[in-house]
Amino acid sequence: MTTRPEDVMQLLADARPGRLDPDGRPDPANYTAQSVTRRRSVPRRLILAGALPMAAAATAVALVLTGGGTDPVPAPPGSPAGPGSPGAAATPGSARELLLVAAAQTDASATATSGRYWVRVQEHGERKEVGRYGIASRLLIERWLASAAGDPNVEVYQNLGAAPVTAADEAAWKADGSPQQWTETGPKGTPPIVRTTAVGPRQVRAIRGLLPMMIAGRQVTAADLAGLPSEPGALKSWLTARLPQHADDDLFYAGRDLVAELPVSAAVRAAAYRMLADLQGVDFLGVVQDRQGRSGMAVAFTRRGDGGWGQQRLIVDPGTGRALAQESWFLGSAATPAGPGTLMSWTVYVRAGFTDEAAPTP
């Protein structure tokens, strides 16, 4: 595999949605993500291509990862392993309350800080339109990052197979004869892309050069992450100085990356949660489930793109402060009303943490 998922969201519709609140933004109550108490089917016709977000995990800053000029990285976040389960004692009723609870839980967390490898496992998914229905194209990505000289840093990729996204998509797929593969046009100059329901083999390759680490779509280094402040205001100032537009949506994406994707200390993650709690425009979506059925609570940032409304969601377990998933949703436009919204792409944080096991070999 030669390409990596990029953290972008492309909106391709034409006009303004009909369901707006007075300040011109959609009512977030209409767009709950995978609601535990109520589910709605979504439209099958869309002209939005969701993109797969991706960032890097890494090992402790005191450890120098060797080989191919690989960058040393700071201490990793706590493991988001296990199912999310909002506890009875943690019942936030707003985005701010949820994010502050997550910050407090992060401050109180105790995780292993050493091991032969830092391992991060994520499942990435993207909705693809095929005629009258959508399929989910899914990819599992593992990163094994060594703590000592002599051990290789490796990535493991596995195509998890495609399948209809929703119950409505599944019904349309069955009416279409339940095809087992689909072909789509590739980028100019490349062969067509074949997507299949079959699970592919695990592919292992060495990580060479600097580890790809991004904040809100901009490259950062291990030194950048090691120097991040652990006070919310200072962290916001650091991010604002790096982000081109200094907009709240950029800060939301940056905070999301820090709490969910990047190898930063627990203190920095807690500061990122507190920074998010003070941002304008962060909505509360209540109790939801991620794509693996784990329960959590979601916050979201909604914005209008060139042709329609899109929403980025972060699902958190308030009982542990762990990020469970992030999702990109299309909320529609006047030309393509999307009802409760359509999930276009997602990243599920399966697990992360240290292990003394040997890494897979290429």
TrEMBL record:
Highest taxon above the source species: Bacteria
Region entry Disordered, spans = 14-34, 71-92
What are the TM regions of this chain, as residue ranges? 46-65
Residue spans with biased composition (Basic and acidic residues)? 16-26
UniProt keyword annotations, A-Z: Membrane, Transmembrane, Transmembrane helix
Q: Is Glycoprotein among this UniProt entry's keywords?
A: no
Q: Which InterPro entries match?
A: CU044_5270-like
What name goes with this protein?
Answer: CU044_5270 family protein
Please name the source species. Answer: Dactylosporangium cerinum
